[in-house]
Design a protein that fits this description.
Strand order of the largest sheet: 6-3-1-7-8-12-11
Order of helices and strands: EEHEEEEEHHEHEHEEEH
Number of helices: 6
Strand content: 25-35%
Shape: globular
Oligomer: single chain
CATH architecture: 3-Layer(aba) Sandwich
Number of strands: 12
Structural class: alpha/beta
Length: 188
């Protein structure tokens, strides 16, 4: 366990249909580095995780989207799963929440289908990103440069393609969050 993220509060935005490991592994990695992490959702109490096409576990929700104040968080994680980001894209409150991190240039970590939500929040244009391959055209149409790499860091944004990329994704996510936290505390 480290303390690189001690004092940081990180939001993980998800709903039913989230790819379970893409939520649980980043949450564990962030907590191992001392961060406080909230699973934020449009659902109350629990969301349904998936292991690809199969139902997984129910995941505890820490904060409802209606109650969550984006400006209280130091960073955002957008896990994938096909259903999860597609459903969030239809929720104006979810897009507003994500847009706060985009506009404030706070760290955002998005994996698999997670970058879909960034398109609607204005966070894809002009960025170099990766994702699940089926998002390549959508991200390109939104003005992003899509590349097929395990992990891509573009300023305050880290993206990865799939669960197999989680070790690299988690490492770069922690580096990005720690760098932002260090710069924030140095500026105060």
């Amino acid at each position: 366990m480290g303390e690189r993220l001690s004092g940081c509060l990180i939001a993980v935005l998800a709903t039913d249909g989230v790819e379970q490991i893409e939520l649980t592994a980043p949450v564990a990695a962030l907590r191992d580095e001392g961060a406080e992490v909230h699973v934020v959702s449009d659902r109350k109490e629990r969301i349904q995780g998936f292991n690809h096409h199969d139902r997984g576990d129910e995941i505890k929700v820490d904060m409802s989207l209606d109650e969550a104040e984006a400006d209280k968080y130091d960073g955002l994680v957008l896990p994938g799963g096909v259903i999860n980001p597609d459903a969030l894209r239809l929720k104006p409150r979810a897009i507003e929440f994500v847009r706060h991190f985009v506009e404030a240039k706070l760290p955002i970590a998005a994996i698999c289908h997670g970058p879909w939500t960034l398109i609607d929040a204005g966070g894809a244009s002009g960025r170099t990103m990766t994702s699940w391959p089926s998002l390549k055209t959508d991200l390109g149409n939104a003005g992003a440069q899509w590349v097929d790499r395990e992990v891509v860091v573009d300023e305050n944004l880290v993206t990865s393609r799939k669960p197999d990329d989680l070790p690299s994704f988690n490492a770069k996510m922690i580096d990005l969050m720690a760098h932002a936290a260090h710069n924030h505390s140095a500026a105060e």
